[in-house]
Backbone:
């Protein structure tokens, strides 16, 4: 039995450093040590956020950015998953696909931005395309790797118990590859935000990146910092969602079982 | 399990092995083996590591294909009786993402839950049905694997050193469990083990495999229940051990037995 005070300490520990940094930041701005042109104080950022919240403007930006991220991830991740299954499950699939995918993977997808603008202009499809491209490869790679590393002994056993085809895939190969696939998902989420930030900063007429670039034109440093904070929060949110999935789908895994939950 | 399963006169497979050979590349692992096993017999296969005993089991289980020779169950090919043959591996090979009971019911269709509970009860683990395999001890995992094999009511049970990784006391418990389930159901058992004392104490017959050939075929004529440390058992054990040790050991070769084919994953 852990004492409750210990539990609270453990829970609060990750927050200590950010709070300390915030306090130092606030103090150095309010004492005039740091010019608010360079970095506005946390309270100023909060105020900017509040103003945008009240005008409702922030919601439309958040919504459009999340939409781009979500659709891009769904397309890129879905494609990566399917390609990963094909390469992982069939020798011919691997022969046919893997070297091409690996080749394309090595092109930094942001290098395609000029081309993508030529293709799609600066509307939504350009951003969705870039996000999809950014999140495809981590999922592909980890799906493929995960399937290749499913314990051959378990597959052999399952076959000898009469599993084959789809039931073998669904009951043995997919769950065996899932830990790796979820790692891929977390990487993909990182790439998703990175790509979106760059794409929105370069060419957009809405979204958080646009909010930041627009504010820069008017020297609204507080809004720029707010946009950065928003990205951080969205990134954290996505990561938390991925962790929840891991907890849900990998309940069986000793690493995800709560300590002391052994009956 | 007994309730639903009236004892049939012949619950075991009568096994005939004719001129069985297996080689991996240049390496001859089994060389022209002939073997007759009557239905319901408990046979232990012993031998040094790398002698081919596990290969024999894998051939019987249909996990590998023989290079030449015949495997018969009664008068039909053993390969046609796959559903009647179950193999228990050295490691339990439970699917870690399935609850214990779902592991027992692996590959079953229809309403198998009650049967799975029965099977778990038979190995004394009914209360663990809803746990993840990761929470079980090594011996418990093997008992679940045993339940998983027994639920199919096999007529031939192949055991590939299933007790190898267990501690001494758990081993004895497991031996007794397997023996009593065998007596109850009457299937034919082939137990591969490197533990001669274990072989002698549970089996009707001990077969020693040396360099891919049968070196010794010994009937254990000791009535059951057998007392641990009985003099006759010790004599028989010494007889087998003398034979094993008399022949100079080959320099230990890496076990060629389970080159777990990496192609497995391709063949979906």
Residues:
């Amino acid at each position: 039995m852990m004492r409750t005070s210990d539990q609270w300490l453990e829970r609060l520990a990750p927050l200590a450093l950010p709070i300390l940094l915030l306090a130092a930041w606030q103090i150095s701005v309010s004492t005039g040590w740091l010019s608010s042109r360079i970095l506005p104080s946390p309270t100023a950022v909060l105020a900017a956020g509040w103003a945008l919240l009240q005008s409702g403007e922030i919601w439309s930006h958040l919504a459009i950015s999340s939409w781009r991220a979500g659709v891009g991830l769904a397309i890129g991740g879905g494609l990566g998953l399917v390609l990963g299954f094909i390469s992982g499950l069939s020798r011919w699939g691997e022969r046919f696909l893997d070297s091409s995918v690996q080749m394309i993977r090595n092109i930094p997808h942001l290098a395609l931005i000029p081309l993508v603008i030529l293709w799609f202009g600066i509307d939504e499809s350009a951003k969705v395309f870039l996000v999809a491209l950014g999140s495809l490869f981590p999922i592909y790679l980890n799906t493929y790797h995960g399937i290749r590393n499913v314990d051959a002994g378990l597959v052999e056993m399952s076959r000898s118990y009469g599993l084959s085809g789809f039931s073998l895939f669904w009951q043995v190969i997919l769950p065996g590859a899932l830990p790796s696939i979820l790692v891929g998902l977390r990487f993909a989420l990182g790439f998703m935000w990175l790509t979106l930030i760059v794409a929105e900063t370069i060419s957009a007429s809405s979204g958080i990146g646009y909010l930041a670039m627009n504010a820069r034109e008017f020297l609204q440093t507080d809004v720029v910092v707010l946009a950065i904070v928003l990205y951080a929060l969205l990134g954290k949110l996505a990561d938390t969602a991925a962790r929840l999935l891991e907890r849900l789908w990998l309940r069986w895994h000793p690493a995800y079982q709560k300590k002391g939950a052994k009956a | 399990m007994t309730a639903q399963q009236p004892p049939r006169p012949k619950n075991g497979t009568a096994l005939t092995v004719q001129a069985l050979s297996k080689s991996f590349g240049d390496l001859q692992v089994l060389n022209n083996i002939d073997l007759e096993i009557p239905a319901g017999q408990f046979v232990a296969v012993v031998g040094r590591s790398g002698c081919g005993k596990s290969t024999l089991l894998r051939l019987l289980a249909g996990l590998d294909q023989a290079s030449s020779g015949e495997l018969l169950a009664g008068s039909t090919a053993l390969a046609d009786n796959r559903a009647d043959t179950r193999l228990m591996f050295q490691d339990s090979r439970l699917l870690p993402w399935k609850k214990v009971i779902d592991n027992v019911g692996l590959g079953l269709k229809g309403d198998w839950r009650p049967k799975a509970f029965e099977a778990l009860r038979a190995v004394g683990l009914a209360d663990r049905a809803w746990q993840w395999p990761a929470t079980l001890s090594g011996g418990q995992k093997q008992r679940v694997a045993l339940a998983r094999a027994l639920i199919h009511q096999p007529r031939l049970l192949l055991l590939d050193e299933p007790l190898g990784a267990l501690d001494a006391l758990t081993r004895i418990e497991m031996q007794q469990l397997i023996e009593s389930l065998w007596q109850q159901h009457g299937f034919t058992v082939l137990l591969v083990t490197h533990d001669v004392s274990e072989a002698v104490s549970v089996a009707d017959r001990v077969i020693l495999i040396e360099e891919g050939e049968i070196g010794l075929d010994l009937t254990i004529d000791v009535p059951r229940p057998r007392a641990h440390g009985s003099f006759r058992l010790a004599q028989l054990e010494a007889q087998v051990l003398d034979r094993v040790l008399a022949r100079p050991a080959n320099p230990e070769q890496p076990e060629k037995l389970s080159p777990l084919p990496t192609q497995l994953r391709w063949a979906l």
